[in-house]
Amino acid sequence: MSDELVQLQVNTLGAWRQVLTFGAFDNRAGAMVRDAALLLHDASGGRADFRLATVGDRVPRPLMYLSARHGGGGRWRAVPERDGEAR
After folding, report:
1. How much is the pTM?
2. Cβ(74)–Cβ(38) below 8 Å
3. φ and ψ at 63, to 5 degrees?
4. Per-residue pLDDT tens digits of the chain, which is 87 residues long
5. Residue 28 exposure: Cα atoms within 13 Å on the Cβ side
6. Which CA distances in Å does 84 have to 45, 65, 87?
7. I need a surface site. Which of 35, 51, 58, 64 has the fewest CB within 10 A?
8. Distance from CA of residue 43 to its chain's centroid?
């Protein structure tokens, strides 16, 4: 089992804030977190943005966004890989 962690983060006022941390390979927890964030996003009228980001780097690296501003349309969207950058 890997010790890699992912954070659910929320942005309601211009800064990303940690909501919770879970194991990157815990599929059940990941699905529950994404579903819960969808409910919160809908309840906010689309004003609360969410992202899943890696933990352990000095600066968290976004993996997925749930945001009207990131073109998600109420769905999770993967962050595109940059040229030459492995995920």
Report:
1. 0.84
2. yes
3. -110, -40
4. 457 999 999 999 989 999 999 999 999 999 999 999 999 999 999 899 999 999 877 788 999 999 877 666 778 999 887 655 554
5. 0
6. 37, 21, 10
7. 58
8. 17
Q: Which two tokens stand for residue 48?
A: 């609360």
* Joined tokens for residue 18: 């940690």
Instruction: Report d(CA 33, CA 35) in Å as an integer.
Output: 5
Q: Under 8 Å CB-to-CB from 11, ≥6 apart: which residues? A: 17, 48, 49, 50, 51, 67
Q: Residue 63 in contact with residue 24, Cβ under 8 Å?
A: no
Length of the chain: 87
- Give the pairing of strands 17-23 and 5-11: antiparallel
